[in-house]
Design a protein that fits this description.
Layout: H1 7-12, H2 15-29, H3 32-48, H4 58-67, H5 70-73, H6 89-99, H7 103-117, H8 121-124, E1 135-142, E2 148-156, H9 162-170, E3 179-180, E4 183-184, E5 188-195, E6 199-204, H10 237-251, H11 270-292, H12 299-336
């Protein structure tokens, strides 16, 4: 049994092989509506592709609209307007007569579709196209449950406006052949990118500044609250560097300021430190004297100091005198020996 053609086969397979596969599929299954939807999907591909897929499977499509039963065509009769260029004027009149009760019913049921594709009709069967560079089309679609899924198409050109690109891709939303687990895909396009080495966004209906902007139906009427986050304030680099500088000055206070070599430890001023130590000792001695001399006459210390000085002078004089007599004693000792 012939399987249904996959999404990959439809958008990747070359024209000759794809037409053969669709004909084989119809001969085995006789699924008229499915074949017409296949042809419309290829028509969308042709509008972007550098290859020629114009008037895809024309003979098969024309025969289906002209010879298949009305019951088989009932589910896709609204799609017939996309294939008007496949037929001559007389054939097109026959198609309308077979699918609709009269011209009024045709006009009413297809009015919106005809208005939407009026400018797109020449693009759908444009044939081979050449651009400055071959691009890759990447798009995000919503499925029937409003979940997003990606879709891509290689070897395309971006020759139209973003409004036309969006209208072309939304044609896929009219098809029921693309499903996953019973959920219809491609119900609405959200954004479209063209990429080479770098990509640029063509449109995004979620962006309020985009001319194609359209608010999400699910989120209409809902109020949105903005979450406020408080961040801990960090010290500025300037303040941090100033603190670091002050700290370095404190740690380097023990080094002299006259050091010629940068990075070398500064020498201590020993003269100042020695004076400080000497003064401290004198203060200690004076404090001890004050403690010892409590309740005594302070003049007593002055008299004692004078006596000590006088004794020192007397001792010096004696030493001098003794020093002069020493040679005589030495001589006498030598003689005795």
């Amino acid at each position: 049994m012939t399987k249904v053609l996959t999404q990959y086969q439809l958008f990747v397979t070359k024209r000759e092989n794809l037409e053969k596969k669709i004909e084989e599929f119809y001969n085995d299954t006789k699924q008229t509506a499915c074949v017409i939807q296949y042809a419309l999907a290829i028509m969308v591909k042709n509008a972007f592709s550098t290859q020629d897929f114009s008037y895809f499977a024309k003979e098969l499509v024309c025969s289906l609209f002209l010879t298949s039963s009305v019951e088989e065509l009932n589910s896709v009769r609204n799609l017939c307007v996309y294939f008007e260029d496949y037929f001559t004027e007389d054939e097109w009149v026959q198609v309308i007569d077979r699918l609709f009760e009269n011209q009024i019913e045709y006009a009413q049921l297809t009015e919106q579709t005809r208005l939407r594709i009026e400018k797109l009709r020449p693009i759908l069967n444009v044939g081979e196209q050449a651009g400055e560079k071959k691009l890759t089309l990447k798009a995000l679609f919503k499925d029937e449950s409003s979940k997003g899924h990606n879709w891509s198409l290689s070897n395309v050109v971006a020759l139209r406006s973003s409004q036309e690109h969006r209208a072309l891709l939304n044609i896929l939303g009219e098809l029921t052949i693309f499903q996953k687990e019973g959920t219809r895909r491609f119900t609405e396009v959200v954004w479209l990118d063209f990429s080479i080495d770098e990509r640029f966004r063509d449109f995004d209906i979620r962006n309020e500044e985009d001319p194609n902007y359209q608010p999400d139906k699910l989120e209409r009427g809902k109020t949105t609250q903005q979450k406020q986050k408080t961040d801990e304030k960090k010290p500025s680099e300037k303040g941090h560097s100033q603190q670091k500088k002050d700290f370095s000055q404190m740690t380097d206070s023990s080094f002299s300021e006259d050091s010629t070599d940068k990075g070398q430890p500064k020498k201590k001023d020993l003269s100042l430190s020695g004076t400080k130590l000497k003064r401290t000792k004198e203060e200690i001695l004076e404090e001890k004297r004050r403690i010892r001399g409590k309740g005594k006459n302070p003049d007593l210390f002055g008299e004692q100091a004078k006596k000590r000085e006088e004794k020192k002078k007397e001792q010096e004089l004696r030493k001098k005198l003794v020093g002069n007599n020493k040679p005589k004693k030495n001589r006498k000792r030598k003689k005795r020996k």
